[in-house]
Design goal:
Length: 364
């Protein structure tokens, strides 16, 4: 917060200065301001993740992982809506951000976690019932929200408002029920039972961490999580102004805006997931990555549609054919990889190769 407050003041000074001009319109200084605003948004996003991690440690799983994923999605919704409200308001920016977020999580983060975790520990285990539950939800929401609009018949397009209302209701209802299941009777789906040989070590570890957890203040970290989220939302407005001008200046693909936004959103969470893999906590990796993927489609899509209905601005959620094929490949590869509940380095390399294809196709 000590860094965010003067950064926000500087942003407003630049915006209101008669000598410099509004953000995105001050020539070569724009590039410097882009780097500055990008760095500040990343830094504050990581602060949100840090506070969320403390709350997660205090509350334990599955509530801790839920806080991590929901805090990341809060940043995503703020960034996407900010990008949509700025300037000409690209109707595809929400779709591109959701798509990029899924591709980063399902391919880059999981691929790195599988491969690096195997190098250090060999095969790592996780509760297969959690991954199956997550993937079933992700499949249905991705299909209804991002793929089905591509095959809607022309005569059905005038019912778009009705379908949007159905999609909002369906996404939120399924997600809320999933959260109830995750925190209720089926919470053991999302906790990896320790192996028999490690049971005593695990119990000892829990006892050692109990005192540390009791010292963590829920009020302190909860308050600063919310305050930092506000700071990110303000800084994101200035970042949106500069990224639009920069992409237009260099004639870069518009989808690059969604990728950069996704990188900002996921950088703290991705580091957390990879760190968990390196600490032999593959169940937390699965909960974080698939939980974030589910939250992205279940919450960001309704947020985009609600914003469109309120503002009257059109949005495009239907994936392009190349995007749709690559996302289907990602989901299928991951589904095949998780059938045993044990990690495999080859599967990690395959997912990383899919991510490489995703990056290449942005510029093709």
């Amino acid at each position: 917060m000590l860094a965010a407050i003067p950064a926000i003041a500087l942003c407003f000074f630049v915006k209101n200065s008669t000598y410099i001009g509004g953000a995105g319109s001050f020539g070569s200084f724009n590039d410097l301001f882009l780097v500055f605003s990008f760095g500040m948004v990343i830094w504050n996003a990581m602060a949100i993740s840090r506070h969320a991690e403390k709350l997660a440690m205090r509350l334990g799983d599955p509530y801790g992982t839920m806080i991590l994923t929901l805090s990341a999605i809060a940043v995503e919704v703020v960034m996407v809506i900010t990008m949509m409200t700025h300037g000409a308001a690209d109707p595809q920016v929400g779709r591109d951000t959701i798509y990029s977020t899924l591709m980063i999580l399902l391919n880059l983060v999981i691929g790195l976690s599988l491969f690096l975790g195997w190098l250090k520990f060999g095969e790592q285990r996780y509760n297969i019932r959690s991954s199956k539950s997550y993937l079933a939800m992700i499949f249905i929401l991705v299909g209804l929200g991002l793929m089905f609009p591509n095959v809607m018949k022309q005569q059905h397009l005038h019912h778009q408002f009705l379908y949007s209302g159905f999609l909002i209701f369906q996404s939120l209802t399924l997600y809320l029920y999933f959260l109830k299941m995750q925190s209720g009777q089926l919470s053991y789906f999302f906790i990896n039972a320790p192996q028999s040989g490690l049971l005593a070590d695990r119990e000892e570890e829990i006892e050692e961490q109990a005192f540390t957890r009791s010292e963590i203040s829920i009020r302190y970290h909860g308050a600063f999580l919310l305050l930092t989220l506000v700071a990110v939302s303000i800084l994101a407005e200035f970042f949106a102004a500069t990224i639009d001008v920069t992409i237009e200046h260099f004639r870069a693909p518009k989808a690059l805006s969604g990728l950069i936004t996704a990188v900002i959103i996921l950088s703290p969470e991705s580091l957390t997931a990879v760190r968990c893999a390196m600490n032999n906590q593959m169940q937390r990796v699965i909960n974080i990555v698939l939980g974030s993927s589910l939250s992205t489609v279940a919450l960001t899509i309704p947020a985009v549609l609600i914003y469109s209905a309120v503002s009257g601005k059109a949005v495009t959620l239907a994936l392009q054919p190349s995007q749709m094929v690559l996302l289907i490949i990602s989901l299928l590869v991951f589904s095949i990889s998780e059938t045993t509940g044990e990690t495999n380095p080859v599967e990690g390399l395959i997912l990383l190769s899919v991510f490489a294809a995703f990056i290449v196709l942005i510029f093709v």
